[in-house]
Amino acid sequence: MTEYDARDLPGPTRDADVWSALGRWRAERRTFVLATVVESRGFTPRKPGARILVASDGTTVGTIGGGAIEREVIDRAQGLLAGGPRGEISTSIHRHLTQELGMCCGGEMTVFLERLDPAPRLWILGAGYIAKPMAAIAAGCGFEVTVVDSRPEWATAERFPTSNVVVREPEDVARSLSSTESDFAVVVTHDHALDQILVQALLRRPLRFLGMIGSIPKQRKFALRLRSRGFSDAEIERLHTPLGLAIGAATPEEIAVSVVAQLVAVRRGATVEAGWTPPVRSARGEPAPAEACS
Length: 294
Prior knowledge:
This protein has helices at 15-27, 67-81, 131-140, 170-176, 192-202, 216-228, 233-236, 252-267; strands at residues 32-41, 51-55, 60-62, 90-96, 108-116, 121-125, 144-149, 164-167, 184-187, 209-212, 239-240. It has two domains: 6-116, no CATH class; 121-267, Rossmann fold, CATH 3.40.50. Strand 2 and strand 3 form a beta hairpin. It has eight helices and eleven strands. The protein is α/β, with parallel strands linked by helices. Helix 4 packs parallel to helix 5. The protein is elongated and about 70 Å long.
């Protein structure tokens, strides 16, 4: 005998509903917790393999048996969704249902909880030689990749089989981009003037990471131009260029590895160096002339 009435539960309770909702919530890019019974002893309302999904708005799908154990799991799930005291994304609960929770079942249950976040979106602006391996590696690392280029001969599904491909002027996409603070964007076009337009369009948009391919001279020239257009140093510092970690990369494939490594570092919270090196100032406090862009 379980300790709940299914009619009183807040969401669908069939096991099949869990898999249906999981796919739907992932497609909707929702963040939620999947809680699974991984061990049970004695009399318990559900056995290993029972699952419940918990969304931040309180919506649940599935059940691990109701009663006090399910209430505690839902409360713990809400804590994971809120970030927790140490930013945990998973935890487990082991309870003796009678001795610890006052349930009359008499058994023990262990429940594993895992927060599932949507795949981070990566916008690659430019479909050239570096973009091709970068998109493939990033997709393999769990990014949802979109490649944008106006050149139909470059932006093709054949060259980018693991990415969404948008054949459109990159500046139009950048100006209308509906981004969030979880999104990533890298500028790797074939045209420095276009790079400038894209960076200006993206610098003040919510993004977790914004990078641009280029050298230190190009970086300093862009920084001076951005300053002259009213961007603050704090805003300019959001732009990571040169792009990628310093691993001595030379080929397009090696550069792609260095870039995706930097994206993964940011995603996982590792320390990443500041995005740009401020231009050296003259004795009068004015920026020194920019070097030629390369």
